[in-house]
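Justification of resources, computational component.

The compute hours requested in this renewal are based largely on the per-chain cost of generating structure records like the one below. Each record pairs the submitted sequence with a full structure-token output. That output is archived, and it is also reused by downstream analysis tasks.
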Amino acid sequence: MTTLADAIAQTLADDGVRHAFGVVANGNVLAVAGLTRHGVSYLSARHEGGAVTMADAYHRTTGEVAVCTTGAGPGLTNTATGLADAVKHRSGILLLCGDVPTTGPRRIDIDQDTFLGSLGVPVVRLGDLTTARTDTLRALRLARTEQRPVALCLPQDLITAQVTERTPADHLPRRPPRRTADPAGTAAVLEALATARRPLILGGLGAWRSGAAKALTDLGDRLGALHTTSAMATGLFNGNPWSLGVCGGFAAPRAAELIAEADVVLAFGASLDEWTLADGRLLAADATLVQVDLRSAPTTGRVDLHLTGDATDAATALLDGVQARALPSSTWRDEAKDRIARLGWDQEPFEEARSADRIDPRTLTRHLAGLLPGERTLVTDGGHFVGWPAMYWTVPDPAAYVFTGAAFQSIGLGFAGAVGAAVGRPDRTTVVALGDGGALMGLPELETLIRTGRSALVVIYDDGGYGMEVVLFGDRGADPASMLFGDTDFAGTARALGARGVTVRSAADLEAARDWQAEGAEGVLLLDCKVTPGVVAACFSELTTIITGGQPDPQAHR
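The structure output for this chain reads:
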């Protein structure tokens, strides 16, 4: 027989878990020892909230489940913000946490089921030593197949107890089953395509997870369609000459014009939230919106037709149907090819906000676009600054874009996300962009990022305050003192922690990034960029109702 801690670790390692992130406490320290004994690589975070975001980012960049491990009580509650973001993003994480002893709660204990349930996290409790291995495997497979965080709760008084179960009952699926496209729904979509003159294919994160890029490209070629993606699926159609880039609030103006001309929009694996639909202002009022998704019902009332099914299978079924019916191909590509060549934000002029000691954030981001390593993972925190990287920087594929906090509209997760991304894809240089407010909130994990020894470029947009709040509420009666706090010496902080740090006040200062790459891009380089405050990202100018929770203009919706 073996202890519960070792049984858990062996089961996870045997089923493919390779990495764990966490903070040790009396409720999980022996479980961590078990993980490392069985070959699972463990990285110590500085805060449990950072650890869960590291596991989240690892899943986003690799598609594999990582473990986040914490103690009970305060160790668990510290995960709340990052865990909520992971739940809403549908990231596969196994949260191995300490739990209330079987003998009853202590003064420090809370009702962990209620806490986790409020965040939408299912709980598997290891209370039966005769099924401990099977229960552990069940939690892991649930996180993997349903792509969601699952909590595996370990009562503290059982950690060293002997497990009688020798092997887990392996009757659980390793991967989610494919859901074939509904025939009736497929026929209805084919009817809509029969009269389409300007079809548009929108690929979401679900399409990427399905591996549908080729199927969607083939369908688009047959239809003569243009392509676009949700923000989370940025890079899905990289290299495709008919791609318009990102759909929604981040769409470049000329791309948005073309998207608005589509008469049939096929959205695969996209939740079609307010960001993707630009608060209802993006699509033409008479455009037919088709949602292809694993969910059994549409996610928004704007959807005209809903097709339940896996993105790859649905795209293949639609292509077969188009060919069988000999539907005509659109001429939209020929009509739009000259406009597509001039789509990006880099084609849009702007009047530079000059200052003697600060750099315009647009100038900064455009200059950096030519200096970033090609094989990169882009991690962004939340905040007003995020508009600039989204507008000007590209990524190789959706696994190379980790937008932390987007699902929960939070900040402070960027450094932790960079750690998870760097561990998940060490073959790519991690580029992490943060605002000064979020950087200060998540600062402990900068030390973790430096400690990993991975190659990372940190870009901090320092405007001396909470930029989003200034933009949204600065002229609506907000107290400036509550939003502005002045500059922070991030470069000095980075150097104190063992990284290279450079203060950027002009484009000339960015040569430090070129030099760093020429020297092998080893370790962490932090660019402390003092940006001109008050420059509003164009992509946010018409999305204030989403951010503030206000009511959109009813005339903007169908």
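The mean pLDDT is 93. The longest strand covers residues 93-99.
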